[in-house]
Design a protein that fits this description.
With about 150 residues, the protein is α+β, with helices and mostly antiparallel strands. The chain is built from 3 helices and 10 strands. The radius of gyration is 15 Å and the shape is globular.
């Protein structure tokens, strides 16, 4: 079976995604900033709202038409179950739309979607992560997320 997971590639793309989201947010919120260094709680702070945002770039969505939301790593809560963010920024490819999109969704509706529509899978480095796999269709016409085309 071909290994699709590449931690270093995902880390680089994830950082690029954070800076993209930051650029979009700075159009409206000048004080938005990335939390530098290792910080598990969230990636971007927007003090004037206030808002704490976790960013996720799913490069595999181009092939799978799904988004993976991690909730456990090596038996410990991670991702959606460990976040202290208010909101998640998702960047993914929608096969239905035929383009890369991004959007913001509050954590609780995302957790609810994971629990009601998510399919539990193992993945990531050495398959030690547990995650929900959600079809991208669940984010289209969803009242909790407004999707925007990647510019």
């Amino acid at each position: 079976m071909k290994k699709n997971y590449d931690f270093d590639k995902d880390l680089i793309l994830g950082k690029r995604g954070e800076f993209y989201i930051l650029g979009q947010l700075k159009k409206e919120y000048s004080s938005a900033r990335i939390i530098m260094g290792y910080f598990k709680g969230y990636d971007i702070d927007v003090p004037e709202v206030p808002l704490k945002i976790e960013c996720k770039f799913d490069r595999m969505s181009f092939q799978t038409d799904s988004i993976a939301i991690e909730y456990e790593y090596k038996g410990e809560p991670s991702g959606i179950d460990a976040t202290t963010a208010d909101t998640w920024a998702l960047i993914f490819y929608s096969i239905n739309l035929g383009k890369w999109v991004w959007g913001l969704i509050n954590v609780q509706p995302l957790k609810d979607l994971c629990k009601t529509k998510g399919h539990n899978v193992n993945g990531g480095q050495d398959r030690q992560s547990k995650m929900y796999l959600l079809k991208t269709i669940y984010f289209l016409n969803n009242p909790y997320i407004i999707l925007k085309e990647i510019e």
